[in-house]
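--- STAGE predict ---
source: upstream dedup step, 1 unique chain passed
mode: sequence only
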Amino acid sequence: MLDKIESMFTPRELVSELDRYIVGQSKAKRAVAVALRTRWRRQQCPEDVRDEITPKNIILMGPTGVGKTEIARRLAKLVRAPFIKVEATKFTEVGYVGRDVDSMIRDLTDLAVNMVKAEAQDAVVAQGAKAAEERILDILLPPPPARSRPGFEERDPSADGSSAGSSREKMRQRLRAGELDDRMVEIELAERSSAPMFEVFSSGPMESMDSNIRDMLGNLFPKKSKKRGISVKDALVALTEEEAQKLVDMDAVVKSAIQRTEQAGIVFIDEIDKIAVRSSSHGPDVSRQGVQRDILPIVEGSTVNTKHGLVRTDHILFIAAGAFHIAKPSDLMPELQGRFPIRVELESLSKDDFVRILTEPENSLTRQYVALLATEGVSVDFRSDAIVTIAEIATEANQRMENIGARRLHTILELLLDDLSFDAPEKRGTTVAIDAAYVKERLAGVLADEDLSKYIL
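--- STAGE serialize ---
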């Protein structure tokens, strides 16, 4: 299935899809699109060649807020690939307190299992809904109790049977028409977790022992169920989910999830520049040099033991990112550098980029605020001159202070619309035009040097 999804997109089409959400950074988009297409091409190669082709791992270099994480996340979402973002600074060398690097693969596998399970449930949701409907009908119209008293004379079952069947069908029609949605019923649902609660205090390679023991003991204890009084509408949703779960073959789900993790998984390692050892450093550093040594076999290709089984990392795509203000990619271990053959430098955002970010993407910030305030009955109209003024202020703030890229727009818009957001419930039915004069009036204090740090952190 995954091969079909990836084959739907050529590199040019992938870049075009990414353009809908991310402004600029064409080099980075091209690099990830080619890397993804190369993975699909590998699947089409003869088997003797296929295993020799290594992933085209990427290092994205650029300041914060320019789209590094968003590019990887959107790419994974487009092709429905398991994706996880980790921060290199969270890991330490094996044997020290902290997370070991194997946990990124365990987390990725857990995510893939949940993803495949959800897809499997969606495939049988119609059958689950049918079974849930029958359970609701049994509650609303319970079958007559069997009568087996000595000497009791049985009546003709055909008459009662046809009558009961007719009543059940009438009830079914009313149920499907929504006439019974508000009626309260008592249903029995399985509890999500019935295993005894405990905690395992450990770190390093044993950090997943807690969840493993929970799963093991959860299978030993019988599952408990609890009666709940809810509306028919909510009962149908809950019972449909429960019935669909019964129809899912978890062995097949786990097998498919492991395959998807190995062949299509994407791991985004952020802040990799923070673990680069600069030439001025002296002595070992378990949070830098040690982490690099532990990451190396994962990126090179190794087998990681997870609670779902063994997972090979040979063909997982790794995308590393960092600002690299102080350290350089050459400060990483030579062996690790060699496993990231593609390096792309992302550009800092300009005023024109900010204008495009505020207007072009489908989920642009201005559209988000318009939708939020529309829930209060307030119509907000961002004029073009206001967009330009906001972009100018964001550019100036990034130049004077820390350059946080597009994240600067969030703080500016929050400050700009602070009063309107607070007063929105009292302004229902009004229309507010946001123009350049409005922006300058609200952000007058921000434009002054002495007040810049006060308003925009």
